[in-house]
Amino acid sequence: MKLWVRWLLIGILSILFGIFVLANPVAASFAVTVVAGTLFIVAGGVQIWAGFGADETSSKMMGIGLGALMLFLGISFVFQPLQGIISLATLTTIFIGMNGVLRIMTAWQMRQTPLFWPMLISGAVSILLAGYILANFAQIAPQLLGILLGIELLFNGTGLIVLAVFLRTAKGAIKEKLEERLNR
Predict the structure, then answer these.
(1) Structure pTM?
(2) For the purposes of burial, counting CB atoms within 10 Å of the CB of 181, is it exposed (0-12), middle (13-18) or buried (19 or more)?
């Protein structure tokens, strides 16, 4: 199978999964939380193991302490996914808002350039989105992670399909140029 065909198929699958996720964002939020919890459990176990292998006492305590925290967080997410969804949705909302604040600060530094307004508007939209999520948190929180995952899968799939088309057309263009040079 050609490389561009592989990317095309992966892109189509990503879009299909994105549609599937957006059809039931609450279930997707639960899945994201359980997967994140499982990864925290694995990372916490590895961190504790690495902490016991540390030479210095302070490094050992820090490694074991951080590992135990990650392990506790992971177990909490896996066995209480609704609370995990709320925690992750809160964290995501904070990140969206802070990203908006940072973009506005960046825009202020770019005020003498033509990129000032797009950066300022982008930051303001992020802050407004975070405010909207906070104002409607009880309704949005259970769905937020699923919606964001679905949107990411749609954009990812679109990008992969564009990459596949580019690879197909670029290969054809390169082949034509090689044939031109060989015919000279």
Answers:
(1) 0.78
(2) exposed
